[in-house]
Structure formats: structure tokens, C-alpha cells
Amino acid sequence: MVNLTLLFLLLALCVASTVQRNLELEEDANVQQNLAQDLQIVHYQPEQVHLAFGDSLQDIVVTWSTRSSTNQSIVNFAQDYVHDKLSVISGSWQLFEDGGKQARTQYIHKVTLPALQPGTRYEYSCGSNLGWSAVYSFRTPPAGDKWSPSLAIYGDMGNENAQSLARLQQDTQLGMYDAIIHVGDFAYDMDTDDARVGDEFMRQIETVAAYVPYMVCPGNHEEKYNFSNYRARFNMPGNGDSLWYSFNMGPVHFVSFSTEVYYFINYGMKLLTKQFEWLDQDLAEANLPENRAKRPWIITFGHRPMYCSDDKEYDCNGKLETYIRQGLPTLKWFGLEDLFYKHGVDVEFFAHEHFYTRLWPIYDFKVYNGSAEAPYTNPKAPIQIITGSAGCNENREPFSNNLPDWNAFHSNDYGYTRLKAHNGTHLYFEQVSDDKEGQIVDSFWVIKDKHGAYA
Ligand SMILES: *[C@@H]1O[C@H](CO)[C@@H](O)[C@H](O)[C@H]1NC(C)=O
Ligand SMILES: *[C@@H]1O[C@H](CO)[C@@H](O)[C@H](O)[C@H]1NC(C)=O
Ligand SMILES: *[C@@H]1O[C@H](CO)[C@@H](O)[C@H](O)[C@H]1NC(C)=O
Ligand SMILES: *[C@@H]1O[C@H](CO)[C@@H](O)[C@H](O)[C@H]1NC(C)=O
Ligand SMILES: [Fe+2]
């Protein structure tokens, strides 16, 4: 009798612990199943195709993804894909494993089409013997510095509520741009849902990015797993991991940098110091008389702004101060305002705040107009523009009730900025409102007949 009770008890215990264990394992099992489903299906077809400039504007880098390994990364291209003999170029691929729980993997392929003919339209298809993309096209920029590049520039565009995207897709397909600059914060976020949100974002920008070089810098939304999604998915010029680089385009020297090295110092103080040294050296080189004569304009882009016109902005403390402008707290090391001022940077693009703001020429909270009548003709300090309103699921951000006197213009509309660099003396900017069906809500010229250090 005792034995029977004992047996019964044991049995009950067993069942209970099994139920408990099953509950615990359920989540893991779901994860495993999702993953197995991903793996059972072969994904050899190229997707997420996008372009970037390589080490010169005549080197175009093609990047795409396959979920399964194809062991091959090939681009076929010609001026006329149907009638010409195709050129065939191989590149390399890398296995990218997302840092999420599922450790989802994909193969990211990179091929550089080197030394293309200037001012020429090419058609291309990428992939492997297991699958090819559709045929896309791009146009290489003209040779030399004497041409007038057109760009679209914006930050903070997500997967959800990407309100400007359709207009950008149409503009791009109409051939309006020579390049796009996305000033940080992609997808919201690329790592979300085990990087499925990143995949969908890269697919959604394909109609833009497979046709014109899509140049980028990292924002705070790319932080997860040490910016691994950003570094794996984008191939920018230089031999680094796309955190900072520069490129020359017509009369402009563009400089891309990471504002995030000032905030996520858990990933290494080294990144901050290395970037600062690189910026100093790159800007010094751009200022060599022979270089500045060829490319008088220096335009930088980084994600978080130096000046805040948003009360809620968490990067600005009570005195509206930022690390980017002043450098690290108390120490005041590595501030970028002094560096950019010293090297005569002309225009600085930022994003992060979900609106558009144009500043009067500014240095150390003081406005330095060229003159009262023409503030942007030979300004005595850099001009800053915040363009973070492409559209994302965090919506718009409000302005301060008391706008500072350095605020020249602001708009809460979703939209993006266009730049046409006419020549060495004239830049033209305009702000497109998507809310107002593409209406231009702000436009201005920056005119300079002398470039260089301001002081
Ligand atoms: C790619 O190469 C790996 C290792 O050599 C091999 O296991 C795999 O089957 C290959 N995949 C294809 C699609 O050929
Ligand atoms: C983060 O990545 C960078 C390369 O972009 C590397 O230099 C750094 O050491 C990494 N930091 C950590 C903590 O892994
Ligand atoms: C700069 O120019 C603008 C436009 O003319 C003007 O409103 C502003 O007061 C000027 N600021 C200074 C400090 O001169
Ligand atoms: C530069 O471009 C502006 C605007 O198109 C034009 O008025 C000016 O004449 C140009 N300068 C030169 C030197 O071509
Ligand atoms: Fe941001």
C-alpha cells in the first residue's frame, strides 16, 4: 500500500515537472522551428541590391544578399544588356550572422565594378549561377571636377511610416540624382525581429539604391551588436567598416562620420580617437591648396546635430550642449565644432531630430552672417542643416516654443533636402515637403568666392 502511494506521488511529480519543462521549452522550440523553416527553403535569389561609390566615382560597388550560400558573387554588365557582350566581374561574399536570439544568417555579396567610363549609363544584373537579379541600371558621373552633382539628403527613414520613400523612388527613376545620402537611422531598427526589419528595409529602398549610389553614415538606431547590421550591409569607400570615410564629387569633398562614437563609448574609446585623428587628417588634405582649388566645397554629414531646437532632445543638457559640438563632458576633448571651423567646412548636414532646420552661419552659439542682406554669401562660419524628417515610426518631433536666434527656418513636414552643387562658387539647396505633395518649402543659395579657415 505504501509502495503504491509512493509510486503515485512519484508519477505526479514527474508529470508536473514535464509540463513545467515543456512550458519552458516552448519558446525555444518556436525559435528553432522558425529557424528550421528559414533553412529548409533555399534562398539563392539575390535581394536587397544596392550601390555605393568605391574609391573613386568611376568605381561602383554592388552589394546584395542571399539567404542561402551560393558560393559565388558575380555582376554581369554592359551599356546595352541585351545587345552588347556582357562584362563579367566576380567579387566576394561574407556570412553575416545577426546578433539576435535566432542568430539568423545571410550571405552578403560585394562586387566592385572598377574604372568604368565616366558619364555612361550601364545596365547590370547580379547573382550567381544559382540565380540572377533583374537588370538594373546606373549612370557614372562625368569625369573631373567641373560638373554639377545633384543629391537627395535625409536621415531617419524607417520601414514603417517611410513617408518620403515613394517620392524619392519616383525622383530617382526620373534620373534626378547622382547620389543619395542617408544621414543615419535606418529601418527602426535593422536588427529588429532578428534583422527581418533590416532585410525588409533594404528591399524597400532597392528602387532607389540599386540605381544610384546610396551613401550612408551610422545613427543611434544602428547601435545593436556594435553596429553589426550597419557594417555588414553597407560598403562605403575606404578599407574600413563604413563608420567614417570621404569622397569627392564634382566641386565637393564630402565627409561622412559617426556621431555615435561619442555616445556608445562602451564599444571602444579607440573609435572616437581614431575617427578624430582621421577627420583632422582628411580635412587637412582636402585643404591643400591644389585640392581646395579643384574642390572648393567641403560638406560633412553625421547623424546627431551640434545644436538643438527641440526641448525633448536628450542629447542636449540644460544648457543645450552636445558632445558633438563641444567634445566629451568636462574634458571637452574631441569637439567637432572647432575642428570643422579650423578646416573651413562650408556646410554640415545632421539628422536625428525628426524635422528640418536651417541655421544661420554659426560658431559657438553666435551667428556669423556674411552680411545682413546676404547671410549665406561669404558666411564667416559653417552653415548647418538638420534634415531628419524622411519618416519613421517615431513620428515627428516638436520644436521649442522659444526658438533660438540662430534658427533661420524650420519645418515639421515630412520630406527631404536636395542639393545641387552648381560650381565652385554656388550651391543650391531646397527642402521638399512630402506632406505638401512635393512642394518646395525652403530654398537658398550659398555663395562663396573664397574658401578655407574662418578665423
Ligand atoms: C558552398 O560551399 C560549401 C563549402 O564548400 C558547401 O558545403 C556548399 O554545399 C556549397 N553550396 C553550394 C550552393 O554550392
Ligand atoms: C566594435 O567594432 C569596431 C569596428 O567597427 C571595433 O574596432 C571595436 O573593437 C568593437 N568593439 C567591441 C567592444 O567589440
Ligand atoms: C543674420 O541674417 C538674418 C537674415 O537677414 C537676420 O534675421 C539675423 O538677425 C542676422 N543675424 C545677425 C547676428 O546678424
Ligand atoms: C556658377 O553657377 C552659378 C549658378 O548657376 C552661375 O550664376 C555662375 O555664373 C557660375 N559660375 C561660373 C564660374 O560658371
Ligand atoms: Fe537618431
Short structural summary:
24% of the residues lie in helices and 28% in strands. It is built from nine helices and 26 strands.
Assign the CATH architecture of the largest domain: 4-Layer Sandwich
Contiguous uncertain segments of 5+ residues: none
Number of helices: 9
Examine the coordinates and then state which fold CATH places here, giving the name of the CATH topology of the largest domain.
Purple Acid Phosphatase, chain A, domain 2
From the N-terminal CA to the C-terminal CA, the straight-line distance is: 99 Å
Helix-strand makeup class: alpha+beta
Helix content: 10-25%
In round numbers, the mean pLDDT is 92
Strand order of the largest sheet: 15-16-17-18-22-19-23
Bound heterogens, unique: 2-acetamido-2-deoxy-beta-D-glucopyranose, fe (ii) ion
What is the top-level CATH class of the largest domain?
Alpha Beta
Inertia-based shape: globular
CATH superfamily annotation of the largest domain: Metallo-dependent phosphatases
Question: Any idea what the radius of gyration is?
Answer: 25 Å
Tally of strands: 26
State which percent range the strand residues make up.
25-35%
How many individual domains? 2
EC number: 3.1.3.2
Catalytic activity: a phosphate monoester + H2O = an alcohol + phosphate
GO molecular function: acid phosphatase activity; metal ion binding
Organism: Drosophila virilis
